[in-house]
């Protein structure tokens, strides 16, 4: 991909103030007394296992079963295409989607969406990074994402809805991932967001074939207990020089972060200015600390509106490019970004 972070890297001297010092991830999700290690961290824990959770956050086994949500999201971007894949397990049901968007023709070449059978068609383990293993299989369609320790990469294989994806995400040169552990109302939740990683592989849809080499991939793993009704606005974009993750909604500013020249920088509250009735119009996103100011220009969109009586989901995910600026600290020179591929999202779930 062509460099989206166009200016030369900004190198901060040792005495330059910066808020880019996240502590390393704890060894375990919970401390010895069963209380989560709340905060933002660089890296990841081995497992997001809530089984040892103590009061006041522990609930009955039945309540936890109904409110435990896990999802795996993977994004792949090149100059030609943008692909997104997700597996969602909410306990009493599960679902998955995958799509391939042609950035040159500005249209979806292939799209798959399928609800599954509880406990049968989807599986996500508790590992958010090394050891991650997620799959969805139903009616001849399959999605699999896992950490291949032998080849030191993350692998994604999709055979679903006419989309064939064979991808390797290579973390060796990537910046640290973000681990956020926090509260949602009176409940607990955690997420691990990767930085952008170099890609290898191929995507096929019908007669169309695309190389993923020179592209950038990222993943998002989330695991925790959420309210019956959950909503959020989200923005995510990466290349191998930098990227960001921004959310406004159920998790507040706890997962807002900027990756820049190998560094992981926490960001404050994100404000999304957009027309919810016309999501294909430009979006303007800023952070309260003055470290990010970007405009998003949609090129296409995936949308879905489900009403399953006891559950519902309204979802729009425009695909496009960001332009604007970011900076590593309030005193740093703004770093111009242009044509940075990514997505925004407006999502409501009753689950």
TrEMBL record:
Pfam families to which the protein is assigned, alphabetical: DUF2804 (PF10974)
Positions of the UniProt region annotated as Disordered: 1-25
The protein's name: DUF2804 domain-containing protein
Native organism: Undibacterium oligocarboniphilum
């Amino acid at each position: 991909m062509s460099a989206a972070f166009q200016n030369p890297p900004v190198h901060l001297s040792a005495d330059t103030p910066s808020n880019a010092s996240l502590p390393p991830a704890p060894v375990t999700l919970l401390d010895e007394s069963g209380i989560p290690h709340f905060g933002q961290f660089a890296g990841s824990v081995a497992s997001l296992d809530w089984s040892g959770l103590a009061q006041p956050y522990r609930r009955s086994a039945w309540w936890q079963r109904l409110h435990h949500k896990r999802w795996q999201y993977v994004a792949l971007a090149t100059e030609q295409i943008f692909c997104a894949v997700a597996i969602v397990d909410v306990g009493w049901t599960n679902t998955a989607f995958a799509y391939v968007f042609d950035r040159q023709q500005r249209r979806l070449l292939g799209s798959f969406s399928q609800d599954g059978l509880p406990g049968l068609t989807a599986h996500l383990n508790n590992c958010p990074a090394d050891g991650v293993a997620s799959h969805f299989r139903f009616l001849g369609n399959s999605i699999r994402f896992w950490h291949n320790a032998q080849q030191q990469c993350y692998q994604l294989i999709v055979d679903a809805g006419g989309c064939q994806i064979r991808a390797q995400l290579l973390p060796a040169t990537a910046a640290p991932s973000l681990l956020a552990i926090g509260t949602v109302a009176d409940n607990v939740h955690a997420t691990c967001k990767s930085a952008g990683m170099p890609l290898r592989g191929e995507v096929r849809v019908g007669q169309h074939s695309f190389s993923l080499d020179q592209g950038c991939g990222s993943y998002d793993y989330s695991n925790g207990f959420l309210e019956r009704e959950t909503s959020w606005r989200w923005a995510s974009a990466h290349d191998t020089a930098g990227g960001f993750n921004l959310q406004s909604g159920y998790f507040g500013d706890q997962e807002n972060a900027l990756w820049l020249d190998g560094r992981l920088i926490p960001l404050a509250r994100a404000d999304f200015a957009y027309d919810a009735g016309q999501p294909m119009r430009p979006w303007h996103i800023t952070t309260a600390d003055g470290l990010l100011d970007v405009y998003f220009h949609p090129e296409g969109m995936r949308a879905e509106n489900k009403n399953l009586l006891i559950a519902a989901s309204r979802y729009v995910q425009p695909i496009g490019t960001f332009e604007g600026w970011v900076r590593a600290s309030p005193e740093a020179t703004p770093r111009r970004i242009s044509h940075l591929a990514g997505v925004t999202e407006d999502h409501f779930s009753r689950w």
